Amino acid sequence: MSYRTQSLLWLLQRASAAVLAVCVAVHLFTIVYAVQGGLSAAEILARTRGSAGWLAFYSLFVAAATVHAPIGLRAVLGEWLGWRGRSRDLCLVVFAALLAWLGMRAVLGVFL
Amino acid sequence: MLRVRVWRGGAEGSFQDFEVPRHPSQTVLDVVTYIQRHLDPTLAYRYACRVGMCGSCAMMVNGVPRWTCRTHIDKVGEKLEIGPLRNLPVIRDLVTDMREFFDKWARAKGEFRGARTKSDDFARVQPQSPARTQADAGIECIGCGVCYAACDVVAWNPQYLGPAALNRAWTLVKDERDKAGIERLRAVAGDAGCHACHSHVSCTERCPKHLSPTAAIAGLKREVSKAVLRGEL
Q1: CATH code, A13
Q2: What is the ipTM of this complex?
Q3: Which pLDDT tens digit goes with each residue over B106-138?
């Protein structure tokens, strides 16, 4: 992997962290606010189903997590297990795809 | 009497116990020297100036890297355990092989590369300019290896250039006379370079010169990021 790509990954992780900080705060605030009147599937679906705003917000959340987590895991695997090189990076691409798929499946599950 | 445990052997070895007479204002280096001169002449260790100028007497003192000549016994408590610097191969007893440490300075392009010749006039650098101020903040490093021994990232990632080499590179990046530019930024970028730093700040905490390699590495991250975004790297 080139120095340029390694440096870009670092930048992407910082940028995605900034997005995640906002997304996590909004997400937690919404949870605390929404459960005040009791928690039910019907209430959640009433808020999210057909809402373009929530779809956009949670899609952004999933995208940021998809970028952020594998890059962090890349350093953890290198430093703790000594696993470096192509095999690690390919596995992390698969991991990123899995995060994106599972995340968007959940987002679409409450939107559609 | 002071009970002291001292590392004996190479990478494989063990601590040996010694009893050393206690004196006022006694330094850890005094203790090691007493052992070598009076108790066991085969003990290997390094020192030169004894006054905190040369940086050659750095060792692990109770698990912390320190200049032994500037560490008083009073400061480190009743128990005293002296070992070779961490993160470096042990040659024997308290002596480490510093080659990799200095090779990394070369890999980080730690040498000055100017554009002037001896027939040119002197460069005129404003001492108060922001760049010179930043370079000056890191320029007093004497290469003792304390920060390198304190760094956990070096322990986890042996390719990592380490705080001292990156600090050196930063002082050159901020030196307006130096012309290595992008070439040096490329040398300090990526998984083995500044981006591996987790900002644990152990280097800054332990630096006997009170420098901040952490700030230097953060500066390199900024400069490399700008170069990446400009498409220069």
Answers
A1: 1.20.1300
A2: 0.87
A3: 999 999 999 999 999 999 999 999 999 999 999
**What SS3 class is residue B145?**
coil
Rg (CA), chain A: 17
Strands B80-83 and B2-9 come out as: parallel
Region B51-55 average pLDDT: 96
Interface of A with B (CB under 8 A): 1, 3-4, 6-8, 10-11, 75, 78-80, 84
* Average pLDDT over chain A, rounded to an integer: 95
Q: What residues of A are in contact with residue B233 (Cβ under 8 Å)?
A: 3-4, 7
DSSP A67: H
Contacting residues of B for A3, CB less than 8 Å apart: 186, 189-190, 193, 233
For residues B142 and B148, what is the distance between their CA atoms, to the nearest angstrom? 13
Which amino acid is residue A66, in one-letter code?
Answer: T
Please tell me the total count of domains within chain A.
Answer: 1
Q: How much is the pTM? A: 0.93
Rounded Cα–Cα distance for residues B199 and B197 (Å): 6
For A55, the token pair is: 């779809």
Question: What is d(CA B29, CA B18) in angstroms, rounded to the nearest whole number?
Answer: 14
**Looking at residues B192-198, what average pLDDT do you find?**
97
Domains of chain B: 2-96 (3.10.20.30), 99-229 (1.10.1060.10)
CA of A81 to nearest chain B CA: how many angstroms apart?
A: 9
